[in-house]
Design goal:
This protein has one domain. Helix content is 0%, strand content 44%. A seven-stranded mixed sheet has the order 3-4-6-7-1-2-5, with no helix packed on it.
């Protein structure tokens, strides 16, 4: 899964998370730490067969260089537009 962030620099504090809910009611739990941001997405299935839906997440602080972790799998997620 690849996340998008709003803003071209490390001061961005808005993330867009792809959700498979397709019209369901997705909810994201956010845990922010000094070096990581853990996102856990819970989504029910909607009525649409296929769609591309995103959930907006506002962080309390800019993402900067913090790693973004999938709270379900424990894997680090790629953030689109981040300079390596």
């Amino acid at each position: 899964m690849m996340l998008s962030r709003e803003g071209p620099d490390d001061n961005a504090s808005t993330l867009w998370i792809p959700s498979p809910s397709c019209g369901g009611d997705p909810e994201v739990t956010v845990e922010e730490g000094a070096v990581t941001v853990t996102l856990t997405l819970v989504a029910t299935s909607g009525q649409q067969a296929s769609c591309a839906e995103y959930v907006e997440v506002e962080l309390n602080a800019p993402l900067a260089e913090r790693a973004v972790i999938d709270g379900v799998t424990g894997r680090e997620l790629e953030v689109e537009g981040r300079h390596s």
